[in-house]
User: Fold these one by one.
Assistant:
Number 1:
Amino acid sequence: MSTANSGGRAHRVPPKATKHDSRRNNLRTTLELVSHERQTSRAEIARRTGLTRAAVSSLVAELLDQGLIREIGQGTSAGGKPPTLLALNQRGRDIVAIDLGRRPFRAALVDLGGRIHERVDASPEAKPVRAEAAREQTAQLIEEVLDRAAAPVLGIGVGTPGVVDADGRVIESANLAWHNLDLAADLRRRFSIPVSVTNDAQAAALAEYRRHGAERRNLLLLKIGRGIGSGVVLDGALYRGDHSAAGEIGHVQVKDDGDLCTCGNQGCLETVASVPAILRRMGADPERAPWDALTLAGIAGEEPVLRSIREAGHHLGTVLATVLAMLDIGQVTIASDLRNAGDVLIEEVRSSIRRRMLPGTAELVEIATTPLGADLVLAGAASAVLADRLGVVLR
Ligand SMILES: [Zn+2]
């Protein structure tokens, strides 16, 4: 706690703002409680938060007024008057979410409960959309989805490949040929709606964190597609690092004399464990072979395919073991475009990790795929909007 002499913060925050902040915090807590409990009552909120009944009534009134929660009927009486039950108003707001990490780009409406409506894909193109064309297509997709909104729009959430700072500026995205692009400001100007831009793997980590609920405080999400990225949630918050590049493990070198990587170094994790790398190592052309071929071949148990998937898993495990040993994260989610062949990959990652960490600790690490599938980044981009706009993780 700060004292009068503890420097900046005590001087910057006048007492009046503190009171305002505390009401805002209580509104957040109340909204999160209603969302996590599915249904609850004013009395229950008072009991759980330690706030007075009068304070809770006032907070609930404000949330009802804003349309974020709703009354859903009467509960059972514990003696007196039966309590009025409260629940999240799922369609009280819409969020426009867009995933720029897939081809073609996809946008959708996401409600407060995380359900996805109105998915819209950009038209498929022979060549990947980049630079200015990618920016235009992003804006067009957002516009198309905005037109379909059924509720007031809380914000626009963008999940994009590349390094993105906390203000939503894309520092560098090799895939989209964006350098120092202030995407959040650009979209805010066009649509006059708050915008949250997040790295796609970091957004995916937020979606997984929201799905796991209160059982997890720490989580690592590994995203394997055209490239390899990861997102880390530490103690309930997305960890971005000093240069917004936390989780960029795709360019950690795993082979001294490995293949040349797009980054200019040799033998990066991406050169052995991205989907194109796995396809190349099994003798297929990643630009021609449909990625489903890899899944089918993996299911059929074809030896060259299994070998390249296992090699990928081995190297992924090597890099992950160091991260997990350092941070003691108990939940790893692997989101890959490998679909069913992913089981082989996960098994290899698991055994690779177990060979490289304290066995007792490695045993406790949960490694799994996600049921969110292709919606992962959309769900995460929406979660980023909830966090930025309402300061909450809704479940
Ligand atoms: Zn590299």
Number 2:
Amino acid sequence: MSGNERLIKSKKRVQQHGEVFTPKEIVDAMVSLPGLNESIVQYSTMVLEPSVGEGAFLINILERRLQLLADKFPEDLVKFENFALLAISSLYGIELLEDNVKKCVINLYVAFFDFYKNFAAKLNKAPKANVLESAKTITAINIVQGDFLKRTKNDGRQIVLSEWNPLQIKRNTKHIKVIRTEYTLEDIYHNIKIEPGTVYTPVPETKQLGLFDDQPDVLPLPVYRYLPVNIVDVYKQEMEEIDS
Ligand SMILES: C[S@@+](CC[C@H](N)C(=O)[O-])C[C@H]1O[C@@H](n2cnc3c(N)ncnc32)[C@H](O)[C@@H]1O
């Protein structure tokens, strides 16, 4: 363990939430395990950490993925940007405590930013605003505050995770298009397949009517679908209204 690593925030948090962060060295040794490492470093492997804390494991995995892509495309910034966004888009975390969620989002984004800035500098280029905005958007969406055991957010609503599915990747693909689809954690648990592009719409609350109550006017809620977009532009969160 390095000298300035803070693994415990307070005795109360350890007692109430089992909050003890894993030292970097241990994280690195665990992610390096033969058999695990080969699969986890692939940009397309989905990883969900159910008690993500401040993101120690996801950051380690992200940095390995970015290094692999930098080695694969040493001269091609556009390819690196597209695949790097795909690499971050398949990393997910769920965490109970709000401050940890915020820290985790920042930590992941900073790891992406630092690596990307250094890679671009080697090619005498600067990071692009749309790539950074997209990394920020994906990270903020993929790290969710909630209770993994209850499978709900702290206010009882569903935990919703987004899949960022690439439309077609060939050997020479440079610009990757993705379609975003929202799944609830319940959908994932029950292996329910969701139509690509689905924007999760919560089921409206129903109220028990009395025998002589008037039937309330119920206006149908608009239903939306995400549009296929270049991964570097996902920050725009483009969607269209569809007939319900
Ligand atoms: C032992 S720490 C590990 C954190 C991180 N995985 C690491 O290795 O550094 C456990 C984390 O799980 C969170 N946690 C506790 N109960 C949880 C629950 N029911 N759902 C989601 N997160 C939870 C705590 O707030 C804490 O950040």
